[in-house]
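Appendix B. Chain record.
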Amino acid sequence: MNIASFAPLAVLLPILGAALTFLLIRHSRAQRTVSIAVLSVTLLLECWLMASVWDGGTSAVNIGGWLPPWGIVMVVDQFSSLMLVVSSSVSLAVLIYATGQGMADGDRDAPVSIFHPTYLILVAGVSNAFLSGDLFNLYVGFEILLTASYVLMTLGGTGPRIRAGVTYVVVSVVSSVLFLIAIAMIYGATGTINMADLALKLAELDPGTRNLLHVMLLVAFGIKAAVFPLSFWLPDSYPTAPAPVTAVFAGLLTKVGVYAMVRTETLLFPGDTFNTPLMVAALLTMVVGILGALAQSDIKRLLSFTLVSHIGYMVFGLAMSSVAGLGAAVFYVAHHITIQTSLFLVTGLIERRGGSSSMDRVAGLAKLSPLLAVLFFVPAMNLAGIPPFSGFLGKLGLLQAGVQLGTPLAYALVIGGVLTSLLTLLAIARVWNRAFWRKPEDAEHPDPVLLAEPADSATGDRAGKTNVTLLPRTMVGSTLGLVLFGVGLTVFAGPLFRVADQSATEMLDRTSYIQAVLGDSAPVPALSQPGPGTDPAGVPPASGQERK
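Structure tokens predicted for this chain:
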């Protein structure tokens, strides 16, 4: 039995769950139960898919029995299955968090009748993007998740959220139009949009046409991934959304863009044609993003800038075109999805306990809520790359790959990566010193809930509401679970790095992917030009040459 045949269920189950939760619009408890159950089953299915390709290999399923390149193909390999498992784990934690927030607030801030169906549609779009084997289906996946994100971002209908939503919609539409134009141009030039088939036919085009198509896709995906200078929209959009929505956006949406960049760069445009511009963009993304973070006084905006900054590490790994670099980038994507989401969930708890996410208005949280301090400290140190956490291991892998590459630009990125990591630690230290270490009385214009008596620490008055549970157990528990999941990435870093390196080897080689879709007899063209980390024949290094 081909386990990949069940891959479409990773998309279908959330869609069916969304339909069912919409039918249960007047039964909030049933909605919550259905949503959590559907995501749990989806996660188990994706774990099964990952187990089937854990030791390597690629499987493809043709939807409706239509053979490629005409039909829709879904492809399961180590990279896509790892992204599915990590994204669904994070999505489930955020859903439980949002459910707890809804129950604590009486569903007044985020009506479950809207939230649950839309959230499941978002998950379906993310899963579809990770599994897509053709460019148009990838575009459909993007549009599904973006349509859902428009609704989630404007929940509550406040002025700031509507303004941020308008910016987000305009930028997303522009990137989607560019992507669609690129798809049309690729189809006009090659007569196909199946990615495995394109890997064969794009190599036959003249270099000028191929480079134009390459640039079009890079720009479209660069906007979605928030790569500098195409990242201007993110810091003003994400922080205004409700805490659970901001968390899932920060964790998943930009990483789908990164995934698309990795998949198309390795499969459709192998070699080092645009490696130098990508490295420059990676360096600028890291440095400009973290400098923006240092200038912020709001924790949400600070984390949004660190999100942009750390996208640069992933682009750096991709631009090296080596097994060591790409493997470290794959590991870092999985790490960053988890850690960034955890920090935004903790920030939501800080906002509830302190009444604000501004560092000026919040203080003394380490004394008021030691558990909240621990929940912030662990992922914050992980994000900063402090040993022995997964953030340190991922950055170390990237820096080692940069040193192995040995070019002046690679050394500049190594230095930039170290500097960015140190500045991230400085930004996190500012949050810790001001929000946690200071006395509550030192806060400027504190919210009354921050100065509540210890006997009233469980409830307080907030935003005109009385008897609001400040730290609901469901919200704290889901955040704790995600923090522990991030620690688990450190504990199991060895097997995960091995899977990441294997997936990098297969992506750079391309044979497994192309023959899984087109058949064992399909030819695999050699690289048009040798890239870093490849021998003169254009073959990636063998697995025995991977990171020691």
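Further analysis of this model is presented in Appendix C.
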